[in-house]
Amino acid sequence: MNSLVHKTLVVQLLAPGTGRCPVLAHLGYDADDPFAVTAVFAHDGHVLARWRLDREMLSAGLAGPVGVGDVRLRPAATGLWHELRMEFLGDTRPDGSRHRAVVFAWAPAISAFLRETHQIVPPGQEHVPVDELLAEILSAG
Questions:
Q1: pLDDT for residue 46 is more than 90
Q2: Which residues, other chains included, contact 126 with Cβ-Cβ below 8 Å and sequence gap of 6+?
């Protein structure tokens, strides 16, 4: 059975002063890291940002607001169009404010991606080989 899920979506980056502009979001899931989803945002062949998201948080963000740290998610709707609003806070600027990016993704596409990940590792069935990891760390010393 395949332990990887990849999906590429066109999402909308909210750019200050210009409105939304399309960028690619490459979503990845690996059963070897069952709690995480990797999101790589790219435009014109250049990686704009790379984030590791909590899979459960991504799922919860489709239903209601989640996150109080560097990543905040919440559903957003414009008429019949249901989106996931993702806000990412980055490094601190010299003036003390932080870099900030807001991305809107089509919620049904995110849901479909998550369903594929749930087929590989159902929620609640995640397993991290902690004993093996500790043994490897201790043997390296």
A1: yes
A2: 34, 35
